[in-house]
Fold:
Amino acid sequence: LDLFSKIESSKVLHGTVQGREYFIRLLIADDDYVSEPIKRATLRARVSDASKSIFNPCIYRVTQMSGDTEHQVTEFKSYRGKFTEQVHESDMVEARGTIEKVQGKSGVYYRLMLGGSGDYLLPLESKDTYL
Structure:
């Protein structure tokens, strides 16, 4: 709970001002790729690009380190605001979600979709001060 509070307090796009909560959502056009849920999984990965973490949907490009070895996940994605600004580039993270097979413009890739019951995204190692 302490880690969650520290992460939440470091976010710029939502918080509390004079006792009132605020939430700002920056929307971007979503891809029109076809995706298929494969299975639930818990993965550890290194964030290689968090430049789209402030948007909805938020996307983190990752290099998978452990977990499911059958599907090489290259991104985490979520439509839930709670996952925006959650982790940063170069963070080592653990995430729970649904692995999806995605048919993109340049072929097939795998992503972890976050947003279901019990899903999470947490830093294990971070350059930021909340750890």
Notes: The chain has one domain: 2-125. The chain has a mean pLDDT of 88. The helical segments are 2-10. The beta strands are 14-17, 20-23, 26-27, 34-52, 55-56, 58-66, 73-78, 92-104, 107-114, 120-125.
